[in-house]
Amino acid sequence: GFSFLTKMASFTPLSNQRSSLKHLFFLPLSEKKKKNGPKSLRDLRAERQAQAERSVLVSCHPKTHENKFLKYLSRHGNVNKCFFYESFGTYAVVEFSNQDGVQSLLESAAMPSVSHESVVPLRSRLLSLRNVNTVDTDKQSAPSANHRELTCPLTVFLLTQLEQQIVSLTEAHSLTDENTRLRFLVCSLLNDIAAAYFPQSSIKPFGSSVNGFGKLGCDLDMILDLDGTSEGNANMPRSGMYMEYLVKRTSSERAVTQSVLSVIAGCLDQFGPGCVGVQKILNARCPLVRFAHQPSGFQCDLTASNRVAMRSTELLYLFGELDARVRPLVFTVRCWARAHGVTSPIPGAWITNFSLTIMVLFFLQRRNPPILPTLDRLKELAEPSEKCVLDGNDCTFTSDFHRISLETNTETLDQLLGDFFEFYSTFIFNRMSINLGRYGKEHKPELHPLYIQNPFETSLNISKNVNSSQLERFVTLCQESAWLLQSGSHLNTLLLPSHISVVRGRKKRKSQPASERIKGLLESLRIKNNQDTNDIDFH
Ligand code: CTP
Ligand code: MG
Question: Which residue, of 19, 218, 289, 447, is most buried by count of CB atoms within 10 Å of its CB?
Answer without folding.
Answer: 289
